[in-house]
Amino acid sequence: MDLQFLGAAGTVTGSKYLLTTPHKKILVDCGLFQGLKNLRLRNWEALPFYPNKIDALLVTHAHIDHTGYIPLLVKQGFRGPIYCSEATFELCKILLRDSGMLQEEEAAFANKYGFSKHNPALPLYTLKDAEASFNYFHPLPFNTPFDLGTNIHFSFLPAGHILGASFIRLTDGKISLLFSGDIGRFHDVIMNPPTPVTQADYLVLESTYGDRKHSEDDPKEIIRNVVLQTTKQGGTLVIPSFAVGRAQTILYLLSLLRQEKAIPPIPIYVDSPMSTNVTKLYCQFSQEHNLPHDRCIDMCKIAHFVNTPQESKELDLNMAPKIIITASGMATGGRVLHHLKAFIGDPKNTIFFIGFQAAGTRGASLVGGAKEIKIHGQYFSVKAKIIHGDSFSAHADYTEILTWLKNLKSPPKEIFLTHGEPTQSDALRLRIQDAFKFNCIVPEYLQTFNLK
Fold first, then answer.
1. Cβ atoms within 10 A of the Cβ of 60, count?
2. Which end of the chain is more exposed for a tag (fewer CB within 10 A), N or C?
3. What are phi and psi of 333, to 5 degrees?
4. Are 272 and 99 in contact, with CB atoms under 8 Å apart?
């Protein structure tokens, strides 16, 4: 087998891995590059393979940095099956539609106000392209081997990151590979812990938090304090949030705090149609998380779900204290940009980032202390309080990854560390080598390895 790293190498975005055997070409994940401009430009470059020559695509989970390129892959000629877990397919139908609409809206906005260097600005793909890709999805259950032909088998194992998130175990009868996708946490607020894995000849392992340990502070107490501080000043709390996973964690914690009367009864808005639809899936896929059914219902009832653009605009005209949970989590696009424009210039307001902020994103700039931020071609002064909390992360930190690796009964031939900034990946490499003496390598973009 040959394994080529077409994304998530030296960065946390654009996950794509091409596995080539004598008889098959298999793509694992097909994500968009996000963040720095030089990374985003890769989305527009020609792929280093012919999409119509790929026999199958296997997907670890639904986040856009793992799936967002799929509509373009199909548009360019891919006609093979797309295998994923059942919940991942349901989420992809939400996320990829939203991605197509968002790109159309941003291109139209750029053309209307003329702030793009391209005339006309074009979307990478459209809503119609996203919906066309759904015809090729084939959802499969967890823990069930599936035959790809020519003696290649794979199965999905629960990874605990978000609904549907999977490890992908693949073998040709001689060599076994495990793709971690994104590894969840052992004591997540909502999700079940990741599946222990005892054997893999080769392991493609995420390293998002390879250089740090998450705070052990109680996430519920953190959000209580942020809400109280903001409301005491008469301000608005804006929470840029990933629509899948993080938004639901915040809603669940707010529902507990409201029941305990630990926060005032200010309005809570979820201004993301995508988050609205995703939240309902938690009741459908209850076996993947640890919330009782009544808690899922409470989580859905705690907030007002904003659907129309007009309702969203009205939030920015309302200066009364409130909480707005909105996408995107790194402030790269979506309705959060309009809320930032409305609230970031007032010191009584708070912008609370609750997830990883990739280099080059607005979220990373704000968390890094930027005094002004560029949105839609204009600069806005940053006067609101900016907070970043990693207690809400759905990614395992380095201590949790080392704990998970202890389940291996024999050393892998190689561990490839991906899905991390260079500093994080190299830090995890050193920690794994010190703890286990396992062989580790941090692959470079487009680098290929022969697996024997």
1. 29
2. C
3. 180, 180
4. no
Average pLDDT taken over every residue of the chain:
93
Amino acid at site 322? K
Q: 191 and 160 in contact (C-beta within 8 Å)? A: yes
Below-50 pLDDT ranges, the chain: none
Q: Is 373 helix (H, G, I), strand (E, B) or coil?
A: strand
Question: Which residue carries 């020519």 as its tokens?
Answer: 150
Q: Can you tell me which residue has the tokens 């894995």?
A: 197
**Residue where the block lists tokens 């590979």:** 177
For 298-331, b where at least 16 C-beta lie within 10 A, e where not — what string? bbbebbebbeeeeebeebbeeeebbbbbbbbbbb
Domains of the chain: 2-212+395-450 (3.60.15.10), 219-388 (3.40.50.10890)
Taking each helix axis from N to C terminus, what angle separates 336-343 and 309-317, rounded to the nearest 10 degrees? Answer: 10
pLDDT of residue 400: 97
The answer to whether 398 touches 211, Cβ cutoff 8 Å, is yes
Kindly state the tokens that stand for 130. Answer: 């996203």
16 contact partners, CB below 8 Å, separation of at least 6: 5, 6, 7, 8, 27, 28, 29, 30, 31, 69
- Strand-pairing partners, residue 287, are none
Cβ proximity of 394 and 183 under 8 Å: no
**DSSP assignment letter at 288:** G
The pLDDT, as a whole number, for residue 386 is 97
Distance CA 16, CA 73 (A): 12
- In single-letter form, the type of residue at position 443 comes to P
Parallel/antiparallel/unpaired status of strands 56-58 and 82-85: parallel
Q: Find all residues with CB under 8 Å of 259, minimum gap 6, and list them.
A: 298
pLDDT digits (tens, 9 = 90+) for 125-176: 999 999 999 999 999 999 999 999 999 999 999 999 999 999 999 999 999 9
The pair of structure tokens assigned to 117 is 């260097």
E-state strands within 279-343: 304-305, 322-326
Beta-strand ranges (E) seen in 108-267 are 137-140, 146-149, 152-158, 166-171, 176-179, 202-206, 236-240
**Tens-digit pLDDT profile for residues 39-82:** 999 999 999 999 999 999 999 999 999 999 999 999 999 999 99
Q: Measure the CA–CA gap between 148 and 136, rounded to whole angstroms.
A: 15
Cα angle: 204, vertex 186, 386; to 5 degrees? 90
Q: Quick one: pLDDT at residue 194?
A: 98
CA 212 to chain centre: 19
Distances (CA, A) of 2 to 15, 19, 59, 416, 445: 17, 6, 19, 13, 15
Nearest to 210 by CA among 368, 369, 405: 405
| pTM > 0.90 | no
